[in-house]
Design goal:
Shape: elongated
CATH architecture: Sandwich
Radius of gyration: 23 Å
Number of helices: 1
CATH superfamily: Carboxypeptidase-like, regulatory domain
Largest sheet: 5 strands, antiparallel
CATH class: Mainly Beta
Distance between the termini: 71 Å
Strand content: over 45%
Structural class: alpha+beta
CATH topology: Immunoglobulin-like
Helix content: 10-25%
């Protein structure tokens, strides 16, 4: 094999790899998204945020810690559900003999979780999505 044909072949392989990389970056792949979640002006201390693709084929959950979350998402429209629980002051569960367990409640309203209408478009141009809930 001549030096010219080997150089041409290597150049073709490098060009094909670059095209594949560029094509992969433009169309698919995951997008890092992070943000703040608050309820009635206060950060959600401990909860969960779930992003589900509009076709309901894929869901990705992330913890909310000290009002922040971070997740890797596919591009497209995602339904969003947010949940968080907190202890109810002064209430305990005594159903297990000899054991007291604090009673917890879901304090995020259903319109943000079980009956959520929240949707976000993930297109790669926005990596910060905040959810100030009221």
């Amino acid at each position: 094999m001549s030096m010219f044909s080997m150089t041409t072949r290597v150049s073709a392989i490098v060009a094909a790899c670059l095209i594949a990389i560029v094509a992969g970056c433009g169309g698919g792949g995951l997008v890092k998204v992070a943000g703040n979640v608050s309820f009635q002006g206060q950060p959600v201390d401990n909860g969960e945020i779930i992003f589900t693709t509009s076709d309901d084929k894929q869901s990705v959950a992330a913890p909310i810690v000290n009002g922040r979350y971070e997740v890797q998402l596919s591009r497209g429209t995602h339904k969003v559900r947010i949940s968080a629980y907190r202890e109810v002051p002064g209430k305990v569960d005594r159903s297990n003999p000899g054991q007291e367990t604090p009673v917890v409640e879901m304090y995020i309203p259903p319109q943000y979780n079980s009956k959520s209408t929240l949707e976000k478009q993930i297109d790669g141009s926005t990596d910060q999505l905040d959810f100030p809930l009221s």
